C-alpha cells in the first residue's frame, strides 16, 4: 500500500504522451483547517486563515458526452500557523459529470508525498547544557486525499476555454506525531481555474 502513490504518479506520467490534446493546467488558492473529514466548512471563512496555493497538470484520459475520467498531478504549499509549512506533491484520479457544456461536478481520490517544515522554533540541549536549533530541513510525510467540486466553463467555444473551479478537499497527513497524533486531518476550500494546454480542434461542420 505504501507504494500506491508512486505507482499512481508513474501511471500519470506514462499517460502524457498518449493524450496530448486532452491535457490541461490549473492553479488554485485555498484555505485549510485541521479537523475531522467533512468536519469544518463555515470555519473556512470565520476562523484563522491558513493559506495555500496549488498548481496542477491534468489529463482527461477518457472523454464522453457526459462523462470524463482524469488523472492529475498536483504540487502545493500551505502555511499552518504555529504548526508547519506544508509542501504536498500528489496524484489524483477522478470522475467528472457534465450537466451541460458549461456546468460540471467532479470527485477525485489520490495520495502522495508531503514535506513538513515546523513553523515554530525546535530546540534541543547540547552536550554543554545549552539549547540549540534542532529544526532541520523538515520531515517526510505521506498524504491521502479526497475531494469533491464543481466547475463552470466561461466560454465553451473558445480555443482554450477557461474552467472556474471550486473544490472541497479532505487531506490526511501521516504519521504526524506517532506518539499522540499519528493522523492529522485537514479540510481545504479551494478556488481556482483550469485551462487546456493545447488548442482544441476546430469543428468544420
Radius of gyration, CA atoms, in whole angstroms:
19 Å
Strand content: over 45%
How are the strands of the largest sheet arranged?
1-2-3-4-5-8-9-10
Average of the residue pLDDT scores: 83
Number of helices: 2
Q: What fraction, in percent, of the residue positions are helical?
A: under 10%
Q: Low-confidence segments, ≥5 residues, pLDDT <50?
A: none
Largest sheet data: 8 strands, antiparallel, barrel
Molecular structure report:
The protein is mostly beta strands. It has a single domain, classed as Porin (Beta Barrel), CATH 2.40.160. The protein contains two helices and ten strands. The protein has helices spanning 4-16, 43-46; strands at residues 23-34, 51-63, 67-80, 84-98, 103-118, 123-125, 131-133, 139-153, 163-174, 184-196.
Question: Characteristics of this structure?
Answer:
mainly beta; 8% helix; 205 residues; two-stranded antiparallel sheet; elongated; 2 helices; 10 strands; Porin; eight-stranded antiparallel β-barrel
Amino acid at each position: 500500500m505504501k507504494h500506491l502513490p508512486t505507482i499512481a504518479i508513474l501511471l500519470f506520467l506514462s499517460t502524457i504522451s498518449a493524450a496530448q490534446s486532452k491535457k490541461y493546467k490549473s492553479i488554485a488558492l485555498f484555505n485549510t483547517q485541521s479537523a475531522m473529514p467533512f468536519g469544518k466548512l463555515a470555519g473556512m471563512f470565520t476562523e484563522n486563515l491558513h493559506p495555500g496555493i496549488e498548481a496542477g497538470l491534468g489529463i482527461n484520459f477518457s472523454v464522453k458526452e457526459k462523462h470524463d475520467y482524469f488523472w492529475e498531478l498536483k504540487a502545493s504549499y500551505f502555511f499552518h500557523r504555529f504548526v508547519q509549512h506544508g509542501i504536498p506533491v500528489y496524484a489524483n484520479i477522478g470522475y467528472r459529470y457534465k450537466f451541460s457544456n458549461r456546468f460540471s461536478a467532479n470527485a477525485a481520490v489520490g495520495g502522495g508525498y508531503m514535506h513538513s517544515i515546523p513553523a515554530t522554533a525546535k530546540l534541543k540541549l547540547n552536550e554543554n547544557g545549552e539549547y540549540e536549533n534542532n529544526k532541520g530541513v523538515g520531515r517526510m510525510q505521506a498524504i491521502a486525499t479526497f475531494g469533491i467540486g464543481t466547475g463552470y466553463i466561461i466560454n465553451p467555444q473558445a480555443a482554450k476555454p477557461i474552467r472556474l473551479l471550486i473544490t472541497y478537499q479532505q487531506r490526511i497527513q501521516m504519521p504526524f506525531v506517532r506518539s499522540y497524533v499519528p493522523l492529522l486531518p485537514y479540510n481545504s476550500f479551494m478556488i481556482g481555474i483550469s485551462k487546456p494546454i493545447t488548442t482544441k480542434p476546430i469543428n468544420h461542420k
